[in-house]
Protein backbone atom coordinates (compact mmCIF):
# COMPACT_ATOMS: atom_id res chain seq x y z
CA UNK A 1 0.00 0.00 0.00
CA UNK A 2 1.23 3.46 -0.90
CA UNK A 3 -0.15 6.73 0.42
CA UNK A 4 0.72 10.11 -0.91
CA UNK A 5 1.36 12.54 1.91
CA UNK A 6 2.80 15.53 0.05
CA UNK A 7 4.23 16.90 -3.17
CA UNK A 8 7.22 14.55 -3.09
CA UNK A 9 6.52 12.48 0.02
CA UNK A 10 4.83 9.13 0.30
CA UNK A 11 4.23 6.48 2.93
CA UNK A 12 4.67 2.83 2.10
CA UNK A 13 3.41 0.04 4.31
CA UNK A 14 5.96 -2.58 5.24
CA UNK A 15 5.92 -5.65 2.99
CA UNK A 16 6.95 -7.84 5.91
CA UNK A 17 3.82 -9.43 7.49
CA UNK A 18 5.53 -9.16 10.89
CA UNK A 19 5.55 -5.39 10.46
CA UNK A 20 2.05 -5.04 9.04
CA UNK A 21 0.65 -1.64 9.90
CA UNK A 22 4.11 -0.06 9.92
CA UNK A 23 4.47 2.75 7.43
CA UNK A 24 7.77 4.07 6.14
CA UNK A 25 8.17 7.60 4.95
CA UNK A 26 9.62 7.95 1.47
CA UNK A 27 10.93 11.34 0.40
CA UNK A 28 11.52 11.38 -3.34
CA UNK A 29 13.07 14.81 -3.28
CA UNK A 30 15.82 13.73 -0.89
CA UNK A 31 15.64 10.14 -2.10
CA UNK A 32 15.29 8.89 1.45
CA UNK A 33 13.27 6.29 3.27
CA UNK A 34 12.66 5.84 6.98
CA UNK A 35 12.82 2.03 6.91
CA UNK A 36 15.49 0.23 8.97
CA UNK A 37 17.21 -1.15 5.86
CA UNK A 38 17.72 2.35 4.56
CA UNK A 39 18.83 3.71 7.92
CA UNK A 40 21.40 0.94 8.24
CA UNK A 41 22.85 1.61 4.80
CA UNK A 42 21.18 -1.27 3.01
CA UNK A 43 20.14 -1.55 -0.60
CA UNK A 44 19.66 1.78 -2.36
CA UNK A 45 17.14 2.57 -3.53
CA UNK A 46 15.31 0.39 -1.04
CA UNK A 47 12.20 -1.51 -2.08
CA UNK A 48 9.92 1.23 -0.74
CA UNK A 49 11.43 3.90 -2.95
CA UNK A 50 11.32 1.46 -5.87
CA UNK A 51 7.65 0.79 -5.18
CA UNK A 52 6.80 4.47 -5.24
CA UNK A 53 8.77 4.96 -8.46
CA UNK A 54 7.05 1.98 -10.08
CA UNK A 55 3.64 3.24 -9.03
CA UNK A 56 4.39 6.68 -10.46
CA UNK A 57 5.64 5.22 -13.75
CA UNK A 58 2.47 3.16 -14.01
CA UNK A 59 0.32 6.13 -13.14
CA UNK A 60 1.95 8.19 -15.87
CA UNK A 61 1.36 5.52 -18.51
CA UNK A 62 -2.28 5.24 -17.40
CA UNK A 63 -2.65 8.99 -17.74
CA UNK A 64 -1.04 8.91 -21.19
CA UNK A 65 -3.47 6.18 -22.21
CA UNK A 66 -6.45 8.17 -21.00
CA UNK A 67 -5.25 11.24 -22.85
CA UNK A 68 -4.96 9.24 -26.08
CA UNK A 69 -8.49 7.90 -25.68
CA UNK A 70 -9.81 11.33 -24.93
CA UNK A 71 -8.34 12.78 -28.11
CA UNK A 72 -9.68 9.91 -30.13
CA UNK A 73 -13.16 10.47 -28.74
CA UNK A 74 -13.32 14.10 -29.87
CA UNK A 75 -13.71 13.17 -33.53
CA UNK A 76 -17.49 13.38 -33.30
CA UNK A 77 -19.20 15.44 -35.90
CA UNK A 78 -21.84 17.75 -34.63
CA UNK A 79 -24.94 19.01 -36.34
CA UNK A 80 -26.20 15.67 -37.59
CA UNK A 81 -29.40 15.90 -35.59
CA UNK A 82 -31.13 18.52 -37.62
CA UNK A 83 -34.71 19.14 -36.77
CA UNK A 84 -36.84 19.51 -39.84
CA UNK A 85 -39.31 22.30 -39.64
CA UNK A 86 -41.96 22.82 -42.21
ZN1 LIG B 1 12.63 1.72 2.58
In short:
It contains 2 helices and 4 strands, in the order ββββαα. It has 86 residues and is an alpha+beta fold.
Number of strands: 4
Which kinds of small molecule does this entry bind, naming each only once? zinc ion
* Biggest β-sheet description: 4 strands, antiparallel
Physical arrangement of strands within the biggest beta sheet: 1-2-3-4
Overall tally of domains: 1
Derived from helix and strand composition plus strand pairing, the structural class reads alpha+beta
Q: pLDDT average, as an integer?
A: 87
Spans with pLDDT under 50 lasting ≥5 residues?
A: none
Fraction of helical residues: 25-40%
Cα Rg:
22 Å
First-last Cα distance: 64 Å
What portion of residues belong to β-strands? 15-25%
Annotation field: number of helices: 2
Shape: rod-shaped
Order of helices and strands: EEEEHH
Structure description:
This protein is an alpha+beta fold. It has one domain. 35% of the residues lie in helices and 17% in strands. It contains 2 helices and 4 strands. The protein has helices spanning 36-39, 47-72; strands at 2-4, 9-13, 23-27, 32-33. Strands 1-2-3-4 form a 4-stranded antiparallel β-sheet, with helices on one face. A hairpin with a 4-residue loop joins β3 and β4 (32-33). The structure holds zinc ion. Zinc ion (ZN) is lined by residues 24, 33, 35, 37-38, 46, 48.
Helix/strand layout:
Layout lengths: L1 E3 L4 E5 L9 E5 L4 E2 L2 H4 L7 H26 L14
Antiparallel strand pairs: 1-2, 2-3, 3-4
